[in-house]
Design goal:
Number of helices: 13
Structural class: mainly alpha
Helix content: 55-70%
Mean pLDDT: 97
Distance between the termini: 54 Å
Strand content: under 5%
Amino acid sequence: MSIETWNTVTALIGIAEQRQVPISAIVLAREAAESEKTEAEVFDAMQKNWQVMQASVARGIKNTEKSMLGITGGDAKKLRAFAGKGYLDEDTLYAASCAVGVSEVNAVMGRIVACPTAGSCGIVPAAACLAKRKRAAGDDAIVRGLFTAAGIGMVIDQNASIAGASGGCQAECGTAAAMAAGMLVEIAGGTPRQAGHAAALAIKNLLGLVCDPVAGLVEVPCVKRNGFCTLTAALAADMALAGVESVIPVDEVIGAMDRVGRAIPRSLRETSEGGLAVTDTAQKLAKRLQELG
């Protein structure tokens, strides 16, 4: 496949439609060309990422280990045990528990895939596990979906930000939700255009999300936020698959995301100088962290 470069989702969709292939095929080909590897080698590397993701999910949903401050750990296991007993269906809580679990693994220095960041590491793996559970998606289909997720993340990185310090948590969890939504659409057999709408819908719902980590740690509110944002991704995918479209085109949404990120005060961009990080309880936790060394 000849290689065309792209730096917008619209261009990526256009190439995929022209060639009548999914977004993943375009991303895979570009990555192979730029890394000077074969597509098989690049696919194998992504497959290894998927294996790490599954291992972090498996560890996370059983985890009872607490983080150093003791403020996170064990909540994924609680959610998993509660699945089927609450307002949401079992699959929904399963997805949330997977996301929380991976984030809890990160909080205890476990092995995760930062996709796109450590603070948002649970969203894409949880969405992939939901696809495996709900649609019986095979590993190859999920790995291809991860390339679609990667393509969306690459565009956001080029045109906005994936860093909380630059754009708030919308840049981290918002990007991850967009990546996961596009991935879920492709795995379900949706079109490249629907994947673009899903990404736009996910980002729109999370515009302005601030980054205010308590005690400067990727724990509160990050861990549970991963669970919430996974559900945003799944709903965005379902909306797009149902034919719902984003009125604002995806690349304009990404542009808005960039402008909003720049407008968010420094105190709410990973500095722990605002939001939840300056509550009384958070200040006590920060002091305790200092005492621990």
